[in-house]
Please model this.
Amino acid sequence: MMPTNSARVPVIEVAGLTKRYPGALAVDDVDLSVHAGQIYALLGLNGAGKTTLIRMLLGMIAPTGGSAKVLGAAVTTGQRSAWARTGYLVEAPAAYPELTVRENLHLYARLRRLKHPGRHVEDIIERLALTPYAARRARTLSMGNLQRLALAKALIHTPDLLILDEPVNGLDPVGVVEIRTLLTDLAHQQGTTVLISSHLLAEVARLNGRIAILHQGRLLAEHDATSLDQHRRRHVNISTRDNATADRILRDHGYHPGPGLLLTDERALARPEEVATILVEAGVPPTELRLVKEDLEAYFLRIVGADHA
Ligand code: ATP
Model:
């Protein structure tokens, strides 16, 4: 396991990584770096290139350009030097349907050549809240529990690096919260590095890690919680009983109201109470005046240019 003071040790280093298919540039000249104990989320719409990027990091497909290093070793297809220290979930969760949860995990522990497979199996069953299902055949599991079993497989050998492609797909809200807690505990308490992909900005923002926005194969922006907040647009939302008059008065005072009396002037954002005073003194008091922050999904769609879709 990584020592907890290794916060700046690079675990994933990607430079100019590119994957060109005959009909598509799936990943286009991506640079990124993930350090030990960090939660790093690749955020993008369907087809953004997340899965292709992850598959290249795992050596499952070869890049057409650039390079990637994982846990200190250059990634090449078929080469598995980082395998023992990496856990991953990249396909739809799969398990042997006729075997129980426990039997599936035993099989996996043996494939991983773990010294004390039984101990690892029981430990991961407990950590992923699979105890009530341990004796159930995999084919009888709900989608959420099947996903949990797949995560248990990815985590059974206590990897230093966990790579998950859309890990909360198919989970109900309770399952989503459980996975979030699990990932943040792994990163913060055990120093596990977590790379996940998702199309849900609000969900990855809650992980409080780093977020890379991927679109059409390109990395458009990288954020932490603070910079994400700073990049969200703000506006002042006003309602009055006579919006036409309010619009005129606001213009007379140098504001630039948009449709629906929406103000984005810096002055209004800094001192919304002045707007209220002006309208009250002009006899069109606001019935509502709110400082509104662009929501996360709207920000994401704006950045990828899909806000008019
Ligand atoms: P999704 O969430 O839908 O899986 P994604 O962000 O993971 O999306 P990718 O699956 O990496 O996106 O796909 C990126 C682009 O590359 C898409 O345009 C896709 O059609 C294309 N692509 C992926 N695999 C292949 C392939 N084997 N041959 C040709 N094009 C491909």
